[in-house]
Specification:
Elements (H helix, E strand, L loop, with lengths): L1 E3 L2 H8 L6 E6 L5 H13 L2 E6 L19 H10 L4 E3 L3 H4 L18 H4 L3 H16 L3 E5 L3 H13 L5 E5 L19 H6 L2 H14 L5 H13 L6 E9 L13 E9 L2 E9 L1
Parallel strand pairs: 1-4, 2-3, 2-5, 3-4, 5-6
Antiparallel strand pairs: 7-8, 8-9
Length: 278
């Protein structure tokens, strides 16, 4: 496995590789969720690139950029064991050189849910993903369904800007108790970790109600809130959403594919999750 940090060197190397090329963008602190993306990319492409970059522009002023988990040596060993061809690990000065002043501004899709709670977050996400696409030039890029709104924003960007890349969604990977794998799970205390599976139970309950014939969205939202409220360790609920799967516009009735999502806080740790209906 090659490891490169330079945009120019990476782009030059990729001109000579066998297509198609699969890209897995990550912020490191790799877990089985990331490796599921890598394995899918490995199955579908003769050349696989994984980027590791903790993107400062998607963190707000009070968020966890400084403490976000980092272990590049461990990450690279995991990627090499999975047969990755190239690890692209630029530093902030390579991605955002002095004088950088051009941004990708997502529209209404990025203003809801996470975008409402974390202003500017998706501008940072869209910009860095666009830059990764330009440097690496992938034929396919792989993202996890756990970050459902991020996935929707990137798909919209690719469509609107005529980017020549197929966006591949990979189902959320969960621990045995249902908790979605996330690098931020490492922040949880033992007590919080025991409580955290309530998030998936709450979403699953809404899914069960919908499968049983309940299509009223507010009833589904109420069910999620009630299950979350039953867990004393939950310190706050940022939102509970039942939204159209593509636009993420809130629904009154679920008569088409929808995403049920939530963001909750356990102590200082904020976790998101979602399930798809239909």
């Amino acid at each position: 496995m090659l490891t490169l940090t330079s945009n120019t060197t990476t782009t030059r190397l990729i001109r000579s590789i066998t297509r198609p090329l699969g890209l897995v963008p990550t912020m490191g602190a790799l877990h089985e969720g990331h490796l599921a993306l890598v394995r899918r990319a490995r199955q579908e492409n003769p050349f696989v690139v994984v980027s590791i970059f903790v993107n400062p522009t998607q963190f707000g002023p009070q968020e966890d950029l400084a403490t976000y988990p980092r272990d590049t040596r461990r990450d690279l060993a995991l990627l090499e064991a999975e047969g990755v061809d190239l690890a692209y690990t630029p530093g902030p000065e390579e991605v955002y050189p002095k004088g950088f002043d051009t941004w990708v501004e997502p529209g209404a899709l990025a203003e809801r849910l996470e975008g409402a709670v974390r202003p500017g977050h998706f501008r940072g996400v869209a910009t860095v993903v666009a830059k990764l696409f330009n440097v690496v030039g992938p034929d396919r890029a792989y993202f996890g369904q756990k970050d459902g709104q991020q996935l929707a924003v990137i798909r919209q960007m690719v469509q609107d800007l005529n980017m020549r890349v197929e966006i591949v969604a990979v189902p959320t990977v969960r621990d045995a108790d249902g908790l979605a794998l996330s690098s931020r799970n490492a922040y949880l205390t033992q007590a919080q970790r025991r409580a955290a599976p309530v998030i998936y139970r709450a979403l699953s309950k809404a899914e069960e109600l919908w499968q049983g014939g309940v299509t009223n969205s507010e009833a589904l939202r109420d069910s999620v809130r009630a299950t979350l409220d039953s867990e004393p360790s939950i310190d706050g609920i940022d939102y509970v959403s039942v939204a159209e799967a593509t636009t993420l516009a809130e629904l009154e009735q679920v008569n088409a594919p929808a995403m049920v999502s939530t963001a909750v806080r356990l102590g200082s740790t904020r976790l998101i999750d979602n399930v798809l209906l239909g």
